[in-house]
Automatic annotation (TrEMBL):
It comes from Lysinibacillus xylanilyticus. Its main location: membrane. The chain crosses the membrane at residues 12-32, 158-177. It is a multi-pass membrane protein. GO terms for cellular component: plasma membrane. It catalyses: ATP + protein L-histidine = ADP + protein N-phospho-L-histidine. This is histidine kinase. It is found in: Cell membrane. Gene3D superfamilies: 1.10.287.130, 6.10.340.10, Histidine kinase-like ATPase, C-terminal domain.
Length: 448
């Protein structure tokens, strides 16, 4: 069973609090009493050292908050203890358990400093005393000590109560925080689910933190996936149209080959049947070659060279000198040289197709080619076409061009567009007042 973030957050924070309080309780119960005794013992020791150096009772008592007493070592042990109790009483220190033993006196007479802790039982306190010898005097420096174990137990009971209250507050606060935290996460979950169902929604989240950054990333991904889906759908439609066009283009020559082959078998050949068959085979071969080249344009096979585009256009135009009597080609350029670094064979294919297309399908006698200083190539001619919305589609051939004298397959302009876009150029076709105009932009992303 999956745990929700709010439950996990509550459990983790509660565990941290419990562990912290447990460590605190253990320290209060076992470590602090010993540390407190050590510190008090150190204070009395330091007081002893200062007293031995300066022998100023008032100074040492004020500075270290201790009590300094002295009695004669020549008295017997009972008198000695009675004298010490009387002096302690005058200092307002009442001890129900206090006695200097023979063992302590023996060590003191050996010039040793002896420390002793007297637990006062029901008084819930203790008295720590250090003894030493000064001539025939027993010097005692002592300090009262609260029963720290009892104090620690009280503190621990309070801490346990505080722990319970803290856990209740943690549950309430984390419930509120987790609701605030999980609300945008639930929205992201919903958006992600919709994206998975190809419904590319956008998440509207304004939290000012990493969740908002995540929402932006998901929105960006959603837009990218939507565009990819649209492109894929368009490609599927294009592929379907491509297959329909290919079937149509191959169907006619295949039908003619079958008819004329049957005519030869039946002895009906007048001497032209075989030539007709060969012509149709050549047409199918050209369709297949053009189709393979069109498919190859999808590959980004970079073999760039540097060349003069104006010179390349002149070389292509020289191939059409033989038609100058039938159609006039006018080429005007605003630049004498245009150095381009690109794949020259693809550029050659683009211009060769654009010019040959104009020569084949121009309804008038003039073809105008223009290259301006803004790196835009333009070619225009008269046409009988009334609709060019599908002119870039594979196997699209205008009705006026479906003439047996033309060998067009309808793949030329589709290949031109594919190559130009692959090279990063923009292409455009316009129809106005019986003229068709093609533009290719080599620099500007948007044609004028």
């Amino acid at each position: 069973m999956k745990q929700k973030i709010g439950t996990k957050l509550t459990i983790y924070i509660t565990l941290v609090v419990i562990i912290t309080f447990s460590i605190s309780l253990a320290v209060s119960q076992f470590f602090l009493p010993k540390y407190y005794l050590h510190q008090l013992n150190q204070k009395v020791t330091n007081a002893f050292s200062v007293y031995q150096e300066f022998e100023d009772k008032s100074l040492v008592e004020d500075q270290f908050d201790v009590t300094i007493l002295s009695v004669s070592l020549e008295d017997n042990i009972n008198v000695l203890n009675e004298n010490l109790k009387q002096q302690l009483a005058r200092e307002h220190i009442a001890l129900n358990k206090f006695w200097v033993s023979e063992e302590v006196l023996q060590k003191v007479n050996e010039d040793k400093i002896v420390g002793k802790v007297y637990n006062q039982g029901k008084q819930k306190s203790s008295f720590i005393a250090h003894y030493s010898k000064d001539d025939n005097q027993l010097i005692m420096i002592g300090a009262s000590m609260a029963n720290f174990i009892e104090i620690a137990n009280f503190i621990n009971r309070f801490n346990i109560f505080f722990l319970i209250v803290s856990i209740l507050l943690i549950i309430i606060i984390t419930a509120l925080l987790s609701r605030k935290l999980t609300r945008p996460l639930n929205e992201l979950k919903k958006v992600a689910k919709e994206i998975g169902e190809l419904d590319f929604k956008q998440a509207e989240i304004r939290t000012g933190d990493e969740i908002e950054d995540l929402a932006r990333s998901i929105n960006k991904m959603s837009k990218a996936l939507e565009k990819a889906q649209q492109d894929l759908s368009k490609r599927n439609i294009d592929l379907k149209q491509f297959m329909i066009g290919l079937t149509h283009e191959l169907k006619t020559p295949l039908a003619l080959v079958r008819v004329y082959s049957s005519g030869i078998e039946d002895g009906m050949d007048d001497g032209t049947y075989l030539a007709t068959i060969n012509k149709q085979v050549d047409r199918m071969e050209k369709i297949i070659i053009d189709m393979l080249y069109f498919a190859k344009t999808e590959e980004n096979d970079s073999n760039k060279t540097t060349f003069d585009l104006i010179m390349l256009i002149h070389e292509i135009l020289n191939n059409y000198r033989h038609i100058q009597g039938e159609k006039q080609i006018f080429f005007k350029t605003e630049v004498t040289e245009y150095i381009l670094t690109a794949e020259q064979d693809k550029i050659h294919f683009i211009f060769e197709n654009m010019i040959s297309n104009a020569v084949k399908y121009a309804s008038g006698n003039e073809i105008h080619i223009y290259f301006d200083e803004d790196s835009i190539f333009e070619i225009s001619n008269d046409t009988t076409l009334t609709d060019i919305s599908r002119i870039w589609q594979p196997f699209y051939v205008g009705e006026s061009s479906r003439d047996k004298n033309f060998s067009g397959t309808g793949l030329g302009l589709a290949t031109v567009k594919s190559l130009a876009e692959q090279l990063g150029y923009s292409v455009q076709a316009r129809l106005s007042n019986g003229k068709i105009n093609f533009k290719i932009g080599f620099v500007n992303p948007t044609l004028r």
